[in-house]
Fold Dihydroxyacetone kinase subunit DhaK.
Amino acid sequence: MKKIMNDPENIVSAFLDGLVAANNTLIQRLEGTDVIARRSLTSQKVGLVSGGGSGHEPAHAGYVGEGMLDAAVAGEVFTSPGADQFFAAIQAADQGKGVLLLIKNYNGDVMNGEMAQEMAEAEGVKTEMVIINDDVAVNDPEQRRGIAGTVLVQKITGAFAETGASLPDVKRVAEKAVSRIRSMSVALKPCTLPAVAQPSFDLSEDEMEVGIGIHGERGMERRDVATSEKTAQLLLEPILKEIPSEAPLAIMINGMGGTSLMEQHVFANDVMKQLDRDIQHTFVGDYMTSLDMAGVSLTLLALDEELSECLEAPARTVQWTQG
Amino acid sequence: MKKIMNDPENIVSAFLDGLVAANNTLIQRLEGTDVIARRSLTSQKVGLVSGGGSGHEPAHAGYVGEGMLDAAVAGEVFTSPGADQFFAAIQAADQGKGVLLLIKNYNGDVMNGEMAQEMAEAEGVKTEMVIINDDVAVNDPEQRRGIAGTVLVQKITGAFAETGASLPDVKRVAEKAVSRIRSMSVALKPCTLPAVAQPSFDLSEDEMEVGIGIHGERGMERRDVATSEKTAQLLLEPILKEIPSEAPLAIMINGMGGTSLMEQHVFANDVMKQLDRDIQHTFVGDYMTSLDMAGVSLTLLALDEELSECLEAPARTVQWTQG
């Protein structure tokens, strides 16, 4: 296991320092925390906070900025940040209209987010939480994990919050996006944690792991490696079952960190050829990774007019710039 | 060796189709070629063409668009495109003011580019070529390879061409950028070609390869794996020797395809801490890769006012959007 790093115990902090140093007109690190916040909050709007364990870069700190998040909390690698960190992010994001937390569906994140909400409410800051659970690899919706679809929910909710909408209205749009988005992933190679010398699981040269999460956990099923074409079919089938059949789509092909852009676009090509639908937006790249894992996730979002407008609205963050 | 692909012999073509399908308002593939061109040329300006072997994505097709390239030619993986492909790109980029080719310093690319120039001149299209050779790992400047610094040269030259400047003037700015830019790379893991089951070289778990190129070739030196801090020092030293000591800098930390953004930012942090200079722009990410190689390159560009303005100008391409 080789990585470009110094002390593995300090890798998240060094990452955050590097990110801020490279983008210091846009973002800042709140002193004494692992919270990245917008350098300036220019308008009175609902604050938007996200966060979770690190190892998924550019999520979430890379999406802090105009039109997306106001603050992002970085836990240790694959570990939920503490409630005090979420609380610091809420305080930084608060502009007087309340704060919405967008949290991926993991017990630790939800629990710490809720504790932070209590701390904020005690200080008079109104908060709400929307839980993202887009991963169809898990059958029970209650247990479903939040994966790459989270980034599209952040984009949409962030754009809507910029309009100055109220907290209940921003929450409504986030919940609508969550209800219409589904994802699934496949890995060809496991990831390796910075502080551990072993890959998170073993895969032989002719196997792939289907239905993986983003924390190096095993998937739902192990299969023979398939062509891009067949892999696209394999991920599309369970996703399409839960996507309204008439709506136009936004799709995201997300690299897991160790997958070349060439492969991601080959896969995108196969997905688009097999989807006999109106595809209005296609995003291809590393949006939510799992360290150096080789693999991809596929996300489909059923659009309506409101969601489309939010997706097309301007954004100025480290990793997502448009308009 | 596992990759997300179908027929490895067809991987470049499938990649180009996926890239265009995902970005069809911005770019098009010229029929019967591996050339990606802007969908619309809106102003009369010098045409800008780049290209070379594939495997370096998002270079070069990801940089076709407003403010950067007018057309990019994709060869097979790590293989120069033929002269006829470069010629097709020149024809597509020509808007009546001549065409500049930005070519990385590899024999095949230079030779095929020159042949394409002759074909174009025979058709009455004025052309020039600027050769990029930013890699200080090679001592002899004549033999120096073009690596990630190429992307900054494309950004700068593309912005300057948008001003409507003449071909000699656009060439002058490209040459100035080339004269003030230097890079060097290190690999922790080799890459694997799609059609070959073996890594391009072997590296043990405690070694790194210093001074690698972007085609899976061996580096200049093999060393024990070092910390990010020491690796930054190792790459900075030879680069700084050739960079004017007073000029403000733009720096690029480029991932080689299989390196997580977390590691890239850790490395960026160490580079910036060791550089006691005025750093005006820092770019961190996968700009010019070598398939799934793990490693980074470091690029320093000595700015002047003209180069700064070009770097800050708007760009709208698949992979570089600003302003």
User: Anything to note?
Assistant: The helical segments of chain B are 11-22, 83-93, 107-122, 149-162, 167-179, 228-240, 261-274, 305-312. Chain B touches chain A through 60 residues (CB under 8 Å). DSSP finds eight helices and 15 strands in chain B.
